[in-house]
Write a structure and sequence with these properties.
Elements (H helix, E strand, L loop, with lengths): L2 H70 L3 H8 L7 H15 L7 H13 L4 H29 L4 H19 L2 H9 L7 H27 L3 H12 L1 H14 L13 H84 L16 H28 L14 H33 L9 H18 L3 E8 L2 H8 L1 H18 L5 E6 L2 E7 L4 H16 L2 E3 L2 E3 L3 E7 L7 H16 L5 E4 L2 H22 L6 E10 L5 E12 L3 E3 L5 H5 L3 H20 L10 E4 L2 H4 L4 H12 L6 E6 H6 L1 H13 L3 E7 L6 H6 L4 E4 L1 H4 L5 H16 L3 E4 L5 H10 L3 E2 L10 H13 L1
Parallel strand pairs: 6-7, 9-11, 11-12, 12-13, 13-14, 14-15, 15-16
Antiparallel strand pairs: 1-3, 1-6, 2-3, 4-5, 8-9, 8-16, 9-10
Helix pairs in contact: 1-3, 1-5, 1-11, 5-6, 6-8, 6-11, 7-8, 9-11, 10-11, 11-12, 14-18, 15-16, 16-17, 19-21, 21-23
Bound molecules: ligand C2E and calcium ion (CA) (2 copies).
Length: 874
């Protein structure tokens, strides 16, 4: 049940009670009105009966008159002449009025017309004695008056204490008055003219009766006046004031006081008699008029009452209906004033529940009952809190910790838990951000020097190139490589090396122009990116400044150092579109600069450009050759190694050649360094390992070579790749050759780059049973102390020393190394022996093995077989 239904029900209860009450009032008013109408109608009938009675009274008087005429023994003519008027003149008129009244009354008439007409006929014909007729008429009058009074009773019984009852009472009294008035003429005549033979007692009785009747008349008149019906009182006043009526009254009073009609000795005062009886008739006529007046007053009161009651009934009915309508209307309005804000609150709540936090609360929230307004305001507060919560959650989602909304207080437990989660989240997000910033910094910065790293350098070059593309300016990339940095590391330790690198970075940072970008690519390589370069001369100037800055003598960690640098410069003058390409060009230029002994600057030029093209060409062709199962022109030549004392063949060194299709035979110097710059060298080493061991298997049928060991050159990149032991054991497994027949050669400079890592790998190789030789010994700076710790079996002294055996430097190193080697059980091989002198010197110094053109150039497998065969034969 909604609010409206409830309120209507509430209102309908009193309204219904009120309607019932009003209904009874209305009904009673309606009753009164219809009663008044009934009275009105009854009075009309009553009037007819009064008319009938008057008609009968007039005839009775006439008959009594006739009877008196007979009694007095006179004639009608005499009597009428004496009186001055004839009481019978009105009879005809009254009969007609009586007939009309009977007809109007219909069946309710107290007297039948036929009975009366028979009586009239008897009277007219003289067949009925006037005194009998008067008696019979008196009987009819009595019946009529009884009926009349009964009717009056019934009318009065209905009416309540109103002016109508007064009027009705007046009517009753007036009728009584007429009754009391009617016999007075006869009674006066009997007092004045007693019947002959009447006893004085009888005459006294008549007098007393007359006096009593007149007293009754006066009393009735008094009551009538007391009823206060104005029109009646006025009419009575007129009757009393009438001189003829007064003459009758005076005559009647005199007669009752015994004043004799004929004074002693005088003549009968006929005029007095005539005046008295005319007065009687005048009063009778005036009393008839009084009846008319009273009836009119009754009717007018009845009409008035009916109208008032009807008006009252209408007022009550309409008033009640209006009140009921207004009550229901007010109830509806009230219900609406409650239900409307409630419904809107429900709608609003529904919207908010659906997530529409921005929904507008309806303006009716400020109207309606206090409780509804309160509920609305609490709910809008709740929504405001939800909005705040939403804003806070959003700010959190966006990590907008500075947003003031996060500091806005939110009441209650929800607010507190949100606050603590904000604190927790913001803390962890700030931590995460710091970590990210740190990682991002690390990703783009060199951890040692704090300047940019390689990825940052590439990004910087790219950005500079974009700017240059717009402005048309020129960029120069300087590739800087420190000279002899390895020596610093080796001699003074890594910490000193790191200090030098940090020092160089700091100095460069100070000396470079603010717009120039500095990064360390790794190791001792730095790069400078300079924008807005004016040409080659400008770039060269910058490179010179860089070399000067780096070369400035300084103290690092208690050491006096002066560092040289090689700088390669590449520019975007007509140049490349790619950052990496520009960097590669600068690298290539630096590589050429490195070839000079002193610090030097090289600008990337057409020659370098050609070299780079060739390198790329070789790289792709070599990759294709390695992928080719037939080797793509790759082949191994083998150079014999002989025992210095007995000239016995103690091994062969596998040396690669490349009969490049369409180009011809290439020496390793032309492609090995290129392969070493990429991971291709590992594939190449593996290919050599496989080919050399395959060859060993093939020679197992050749008597001279069946037991010969083979040495394979392995690049530094391969050694440090950590895959070398696996690769070697794979070929050993595959061919099943004796591991002692395989050895690997690693150049001294490679070993020095990372002695510890190299030692670990070499140990693993030796654990397979494969021996290890240190190649090109003397070109690096291996200290003799290091040599003792290295897990090696053989030292191959570089050709540069062998060719200088005749000079002091060469011979002393060879002697020293040979002595040490023998002391720690290391085999000494002399490489590049070209002359007999060298040969005999080496033999004298005690070198174990000899390798060189003097004995044999590297040979194809077929040629080696022939060479070996020939030697045996020789
Ligand atoms: P290396 O390991 O020092 O090889 C010895 C080089 O000296 C060979 O040059 C050989 O032909 C040359 N040679 C030998 N005796 C004499 C002599 O009496 N006088 C002169 N002037 N030279 C002599 P090659 O074959 O041109 O090899 C050059 C370098 O290429 C090798 O130097 C080695 O470092 C590298 N190499 C050659 N083959 C391979 C290979 O299969 N794998 C790898 N990683 N490197 C290889
Ligand atoms: Ca070698
Ligand atoms: Ca060598």
């Amino acid at each position: 049940m909604g609010v409206t239904t409830r309120l209507i029900a509430l209102v309908m209860l009193p309204v219904t009670a009120m309607c019932l009450l009003a209904g009874s009032v209305v009904l009673s008013r309606r009753g009164s009105a219809s009663e008044a109408v009934a009275v009105d109608r009854g009075v009309v009938a009553l009037n007819e009966m009064v008319t009938l009675r008057d008609a009968l009274l007039v005839q009775e008087t006439s008959s009594v008159f006739d009877g008196r005429v007979l009694e007095l023994g006179t004639t009608r003519e005499i009597a009428t002449t004496f009186l001055g008027f004839d009481p019978g003149t009105e009879v005809a008129t009254q009969r007609t009025l009586g007939d009309r009244a009977i007809a109007a009354l219909g069946p309710s008439s107290p007297v039948g017309a036929d009975v009366l007409h028979v009586l009239y006929a008897g009277i007219d014909a003289g067949t009925i004695d006037p005194r009998v007729a008067a008696q019979r008429l008196g009987g009819y009058i009595t019946v009529t008056v009884e009926t009349l009074l009964r009717s009056l009773d019934s009318l009065e019984g209905g009416a309540r204490e109103t002016p109508l009852t007064a009027a009705l009472e007046s009517l009753r009294e007036v009728i009584g008055l007429v009754d009391l008035a009617a016999p007075q003429a006869i009674e006066l005549s009997e007092v004045w003219f007693p019947s002959p033979g009447a006893t004085p007692q009888a005459t006294a009785v008549v007098s007393t009766q007359f006096a009593e009747r007149r007293a009754d008349f006066a009393a009735t008149s008094g009551r009538l006046r007391a009823l206060g019906v104005e029109s009646v009182i006025a009419a009575m006043g007129r009757i009393d004031a009438d001189p003829e009526v007064q003459a009758f009254e005076l005559a009647a009073t005199d007669a009752l006081h015994g004043v004799p009609l004929i004074a002693a000795g005088a003549v009968l005062d006929a005029a007095k008699v005539a005046t008295a009886f005319r007065g009687y008739f005048t009063r009778r006529v005036m009393l008839e008029d009084l009846i008319g007046t009273t009836v009119t007053s009754v009717r007018s009161e009845a009409h008035h009452l009916a109208a008032t009651e009807r008006a009252g009934f209408l007022t009550w009915a309409l008033g009640t209906a209006a009140l009921a309508l207004v009550s229901v209307g007010v109830a509806l309005r009230l219900a609406r004033s409650i239900s409307k804000p409630l419904k809107e609150l429900a709608d609003y709540a529904h919207k908010v529940n659906e997530g529409e936090l921005e929904a507008e609360p309806s303006p009716s929230r400020k109207h309606g009952p206090r409780e509804t307004r309160l509920a609305y305001s609490i709910f809008t507060d709740l929504v405001a809190n939800l909005q705040l919560l939403d804003a806070k959650a959003n700010a959190l989602a966006l990590c907008d910790f500075d947003n003031p909304v996060l500091r806005a207080p939110l009441p209650g437990r929800l607010g507190r838990s949100l606050e603590s989660s904000v604190a927790l989240l913001s803390g962890s997000i700030v931590e995460r951000d710091q970590l990210q910033t740190h990682l991002a910094f690390q990703a783009t910065h060199d951890s040692l020097t704090g300047i940019g790293n390689r990825p940052a350098a590439i990004t910087a070059i790219e950005a500079a190139m974009h700017r240059a593309a717009r402005t048309g300016a020129t960029i120069a990339v300087l590739f800087v490589d420190l000279n002899d940095f390895k020596a610093v590391n080796d001699r003074h330790g890594h910490e000193a090396g790191d200090a030098v690198l940090r020092h160089v970075a700091e100095q460069l940072k100070i000396d470079l122009r603010s717009g120039d970008f500095l990064a360390r690519l790794g190791g001792d390589e730095f790069v400078v990116v300079a924008e807005g370069i004016d040409g080659v001369a400008d770039a060269t100037d910058l490179a010179r400044r860089v070399i000067e800055t780096i070369g400035r003598p300084t103290k690092v960690g208690g050491l006096n150092v002066s560092i040289g640098a090689a700088v390669g410069v590449a520019m975007t003058l007509d140049g490349p579109e790619e950052p990496l390409q520009l960097l590669a060009r600068a690298d290539a230029a630096m590589y050429r600069a490195k070839l000079h002994d002193e610090s030097a600057i090289e600008i990337f030029d057409a020659g370098l450009q050609q070299q780079m093209i060739e390198r790329v060409d070789i790289e792709t062709a070599l990759a294709a050759a390695l992928a080719d199962p037939t080797g793509g022109g790759l082949q191994l030549h083998y150079q014999p190694v002989l025992d210095a004392a007995s000239a016995r063949l103690v091994g062969v060194e596998a040396l690669i050649r490349w009969d490049r299709p369409g180009i011809g035979m290439l020496q390793p110097d032309s492609f090995i360094p290129i392969a070493e710059a990429t991971a291709l060298i590992i594939d190449l080493d593996c290919w050599v390992l496989a080919e050399a061991t395959r060859q060993l298997m093939a020679w197992s049928t050749v008597a001279e070579l069946a037991e010969v060991p083979v040495a394979v050159n392995i690049s530094g990149r391969h050694l440090l790749s950590r895959h070398l032991p696996d690769h070697i054991s794979a070929v050993l497994d595959k061919t099943g050759i004796d591991p002692h027949r395989l050895s690997i050669e690693i150049t001294e400079t490679v070993l020095l780059a990372d002695l510890i890592a190299a030692a670990v790998e070499l140990d693993a190789v030796r654990a397979l049973g494969v021996s290890v030789a240190i190649d090109d010994f003397g070109t690096g700076y291996t200290s003799l102390a290091h040599l003792q710790q290295l897990p090696i079996d053989t030292i191959k002294i570089d050709r540069s020393f062998i060719s200088q055996l005749n000079v002091r430097r060469g011979s002393s190193l060879v002697r020293m190394v040979t002595d040490l080697g023998h002391a720690i059980d290391i085999n000494i091989v002399a490489e590049g022996v070209e002359t007999d002198e060298e040969m005999s010197a080496l033999q004298a110094m005690g070198a174990d093995h000899i390798q060189g053109y003097l004995l044999s150039r590297p040979l194809t497998p077929v040629a080696l077989c022939a060479w070996a065969h020939e030697r045996i034969a020789a």
